[in-house]
Every structure is written in C-alpha cells, then in structure tokens.
C-alpha cells in the first residue's frame, strides 16, 4: 500500500475553517463519505510488509477517528480504521472469517493479511483481534483509548450504531454486498460478545469495562506496557509514549457522533434509491413485455 503524504492525511481530517468556505453539513457529508469510498484502496498484498507501530485498542466511540488522525499526524500512518474497511466486501468477508476462526495461528495470519501495509490500527473490527496483534507484533505500542464515563460511552455507542445492528439496515442494504457483509459482521460481534463476555448487550457499560479489563490483562500476561489514554489528555502523554515530538496544532477532536448520523442517512438513501431503481426497472420491463403480449 503506498504511503500517504502528510498533506493527504491532513486534508482528509481537516475541519472547516468557516461557513464561507464550506457549510458544516457539507463538511460532515464529506467526512461520512469515507465510509463509502476508500481512496487509499486495498494495497498490494505482495508488497513489502511495513511494521505495525501502534495498536489503538480502544472501542469505537472512544475518539477512534481522532486517534486515527493523531496516529497519522505522528507519522504512524496509514492507520486502519472502520472507514477503510466498509467500502471493501472482500475485506469485510475476511474479517468475518477471522472472527469465526478458532485456531490462533491461522487467525493471526489472517489478521496480518488484513492489516498489511498499515503502521497503526484503531476502531472496529480490528480491535477484536487485539490479543492476536499483541502476539503477531511484539514491538508495537499499545494505546487503550477510552471515554471518561462508561455509561456515557454506552449511550453514545448505542445511539450511533443500533441502526446498523437492526433488521432495518439488513433490508435497506440488501442489494449491496458491502452492506450485507457489514450486517453479518455486526451479527458476529453480538455472537462474540455472548462467547467472551456472557452478554449480547455489546453497547453496555458492563461490556465496555470487561473489554478494557481484558486488554489490560492480555497485555500484562505478555509483559506489555499500555497507555490508557483519553482524547482530553492531549498530545503530551501520547507523544511521550510513542517517542514523538509534540505537534504545534491542537489534538484532533473529530465529532464521530455527528459523522455517524450522516453515515446512517447516506446508507439509508443509498439503499432506498437502489430498491426504487430495481422496482422501477422491473416495472419498466413488465410494461415493455406487456406491449408484445
């Protein structure tokens, strides 16, 4: 995968300078579209492997988009994020297979194939494989990005993601292979929650705490240091932990909740328009055929 320039990274995450340049709605729409189109592509699996420098182990709605922007600003990019996965059915399919794989050695090979060409990772579904990545990349730094209040996290996560776990999303996106794969991945997430944490309530404060405790326990078992980080902490602790200079600009603070609201509306519009086109084409063919009957 070709390495992106710092200018390209900054452009993807730059906040609007003012309404005279671009409206806030347009800005969030542009940001949301990266969940539909990935300009960076899948990369060449036969290219030289780059070292994974950072494992951003925190769950979504724990400033994962901000962490992606921060990692890339610090020279630890490209960073794999959910937005680089959703546009690719083949990548989603491989993630689903990896979640179902019980053999650790086979699963680790699959994970390495999935994140090939990236220097850092964060967000779902990659963080499901945090213990595997600890084993596969013993030199990678581990950052556990968190929210200050688990209850607030649970409410935020449910508000952002419930639609994509619902039958509504399945039927709206049925005509798109990427949407079907995403829904299947979400169902596998629920199954994983039952198996590992004893509950299908994956957007709960209890599950959030259990997940973070598991990350810390797995790291301790391997004698690995973990930076427990909140976006409110700013650049200093993160840069110190990664051995990087502190940038002059403020720490990225991207509004993931607003972005995912736009993402939901975009996926609904895409699905509805697809069904309308299908029924319109079917009706048109029926009308043409009826002329010759």
UniProtKB/TrEMBL annotation:
It comes from the Eukaryota. Signal peptide: none annotated. InterPro entries: P-loop_NTPase, Sulfotransfer_4. The chain crosses the membrane at residues 12-36, 160-177, 262-286. Keywords: Membrane, Transmembrane, Transmembrane helix. Coiled coil: none annotated. Pfam families: Sulfotransfer_4 (PF17784). This is Uncharacterized protein. It comes from Fusarium acutatum.
């Amino acid at each position: 995968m070709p390495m992106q320039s710092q200018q390209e990274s900054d452009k993807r995450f730059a906040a609007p300078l003012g309404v005279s340049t671009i409206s806030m709605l347009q800005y969030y729409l542009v940001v949301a579209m990266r969940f539909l189109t990935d300009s960076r592509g899948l990369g060449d699996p036969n290219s030289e492997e780059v070292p994974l420098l950072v494992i951003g182990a925190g769950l979504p709605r724990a400033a994962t988009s901000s962490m992606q922007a921060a990692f890339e600003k610090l020279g630890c990019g490209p960073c794999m994020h959910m937005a680089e996965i959703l546009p690719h059915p083949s990548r989603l399919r491989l993630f689903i297979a990896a979640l179902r794989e019980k053999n650790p050695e086979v699963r680790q090979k699959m994970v390495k194939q999935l994140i090939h060409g990236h220097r850092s990772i964060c967000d779902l579904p990659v963080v499901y494989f945090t213990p595997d990545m600890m084993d596969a990349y013993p030199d990678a730094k581990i950052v556990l990005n968190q929210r200050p209040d688990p209850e607030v996290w649970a409410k935020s996560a449910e508000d952002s993601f419930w639609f994509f776990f619902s039958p509504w999303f399945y039927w709206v996106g049925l005509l798109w292979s990427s949407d079907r794969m995403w829904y299947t991945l979400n169902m596998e997430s629920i199954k994983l929650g039952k198996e590992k944490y004893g509950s299908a309530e994956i957007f709960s404060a209890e599950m959030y705490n259990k997940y973070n405790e598991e990350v810390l326990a797995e790291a301790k078992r391997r004698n690995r240091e973990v930076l427990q980080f909140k976006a409110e902490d700013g650049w200093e602790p993160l840069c110190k932990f990664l051995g990087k200079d502190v940038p002059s600009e403020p720490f990225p603070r991207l509004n993931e909740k607003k972005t995912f609201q736009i993402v939901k509306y975009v996926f609904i519009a895409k699905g509805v328009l697809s069904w309308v086109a299908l029924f319109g084409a079917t009706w048109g063919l029926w009308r043409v055929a009826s002329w010759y009957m």
